[in-house]
Input
Amino acid sequence: MTALNWQVVLPEIWLLLAACAVLLIDVFNEHPERRPTFWLTQVAIAVFALLQLQGYMAGTTAYGMQGMVVVDPMGRLLAFFAALSVMATLAYARPTLAARDMQKGEFYTLTLFVLLGISVMCSANNFLVVYLGLELMSLSLYALTALRRDHAISTEAAMKYFVLGALASGFLLYGLSMMYGATGSLEIPRVFDRIATGSINKEVLVFGVVFVVAGLAFKLGAAPFHMWVPDVYQGAPTAVTLLIGGAPKFAAFAITIRLLVEGMLGLAIDWQQMFIVLAVASLAIGNLAAIAQTNLKRMLAYSTISQMGFIVLGLSAGVVSGNTLSAGNAYSSSMFYLVAYVLTTLGTFGLIMFLSRQGFESEEINDFAGLAKRSPWLAGVMTVFMFSLAGVPPMVGFFAKLAVIQALVTTNVPLYIGLAVAAVMFSLIGAFYYLRVVKVMWFDEPTQTAPVWQTQGVTLLLAANGAAVFLFGPFSGGIMAMCRDAIVAALSS
Output
């Protein structure tokens, strides 16, 4: 249905006004810890999340801005999850930012613009809107990565991120321009209709799809377009690393579904083959390279690449033998995997920041040696996160991996069954470096004697995050149903 333009983009309007208000109010904020700015930002994001949740609960699909924007359950749900992720990121980051003189209004304003770009991508129904949201998010992340201007490693990471990000954006834009040239439209539903007619230049379309997939693979962090991930994860301030590794993944998933599924499903036989190659490469490179890492943030970066391999693997099984009967199951399993991954990543990097202190980053794996003797409950929470990433039951990560593997096996196609077996084997390899962290925490002698820096708010958030990772596994049916309903609504609109 068609709704009033301002109603369709109400959450985005609110977020834009809130970002401007935070920017102006912070000018007059003399509090050394920027407490009013922090709470104003959190309230703004909470209202945004409630608006998105309200739209998701309504269960309707509406179009606005002359069809350039679509609000449906999938976009609403992804934007809602992204908002929760950003709220948790800010809560984890606040003590660390204060200790490193990074508690600045620019951090909160740019974070709001990152979330705004994510929301725009989640509701994009036009190639131009996709690119607008992508650049708004990306440019804000580049600036956040370089926020510590006097820190050489952070500045180097920002430069690498910017250069490679610009290259990937160019790939995506070139691919979209070729799609426009072949179909004569920038509107995603109309592109779908033109492809379905079969009366257009197939070679130009496939060539365009190659560049689109390359751009999307960069944003997802999938191999072989993963070169930026380890350097940026390690070099960026940990608070920014968490921001990059969390909410933007929902936006990347959203535009992947919008462009490839809603717009180019008729070319699935072409882009699914590319996704299979991306998935296998991500699983292999991510898991094998992570084994050699001694820096925990860099290890988690390679872990992210392997985790993206699972997500891409699920996306590659939507169209089987020319029918879309398994599409809802495959895409919803990938979406559930993404939720589980972000939930675990929030806690992992949050705990790294929790153990940091003035002049000490706690980034090396050896920095966690003997943590169980210094703080048994922190070691227990980190163990839960590592087990979830490794796919050990009953953590949510196990059920997420099980959902993707089940989606592959139920296709009854030998290729996908083989891919499921390969995914399990690579997961067994990946378990080594996750369990190594657990071993270091529980069985090695402590290398740090300083007491653990206790912050009550972050302590409660870590406990809640760990409980969610532990409990959302056996009771994951509700979240899985939400993902399935959102995907089905997007496919049927």
